[in-house]
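Treating backbone geometry as a discrete language has practical consequences that deserve illustration. The amino acid sequence and the backbone structure tokens for this protein are reproduced below.
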Amino acid sequence: MQMTKLNAAITGVGGYVPDYILTNQELSTMMDTSDEWITTRVGIKERHILKDDAKGASYLGEMAIKDLFAKKNVQPTEIEMVICATSTPDHIFPSTASKIAEQVGIKGALAIDIQAACSGFIAALEMAEAYIKSGKHKKIIVVSTEKMSYMVDYQDRQTAPLFGDGAGAVLIEPTTENFGIMDTQLYTDGAGFRHLHMKSGGSASAATHQTIDRREHYVYQEGQAVFKNAVVDMAEVSAEIMERNHLTDNDIAWLIPHQANLRIIDATVQRTGIDHQKVIINIERYGNTSSASIPICLWENEKNFKKGDNIILTAFGAGFTWGAVWIKWGY
């Protein structure tokens, strides 16, 4: 007897960004920078910041999932797995996913974190897809949540303007229709470590008075090296997944790139040949929210998607990690 083929489809989206908005104008009172300097280099005007020091990434993730539940009318008890992509966990342990699950009333489900930096959401999608297609689970939440402001050095004008806080969540369910996550391609090149990391705070360089004095607990980025690799890799992997599946620019309804830098996005658009009108960009209002940037784009634009729309998601982040996902929208 032939088994019915299952696909894994996104069936709902939720999101959340904090109320407080940090503008370029305000940043210019904190450091030697200006609205023009930031806008022309990265395309960012403002970013949302979680100002409450007592709240971490789990709070943002909790709010995104509550938004998803409210729209989908799904009960927490129905969720069988939570995969949380984050680079800014509440604690080294336990998982941020376990805290989020508790906060939203999910009991008895496996709740785990994954860390793939800005590529975390698409990596988590591939993992959820495998669980759904195996038949093991029927309802999985992928949540990407980032409190990037906690690791931003507001004395460093090269990195401080880049990052914002926020979270996005999607519900993944099985379908026998030809919709959902159709193909994924993910890569890692560990040689990229030296260009983008946090110097201290882990087991290889524990926190000490000295590491704090040397300001080693913030984002360290060699901008030119990261930019050069991101431009090539994000553009090429997007083109690769299209060519492999015989998709042309005319077949694509939407391209959703990770929101790191407007010039990187432009390079990806040029390489794929996709019309700029089909490219979802919100970096001007949110900055780089790391793994949360793509699901926040999904959340903001959900009303514009139609069943059957071909959507390409693509990201590049620390590690280096990068990849692309082809989705056929399921509702």
About this structure: Residues 182-328 form a domain with the Peroxisomal Thiolase; Chain A, domain 1 fold (CATH 3.40.47.10). The longest strand covers residues 165-175.
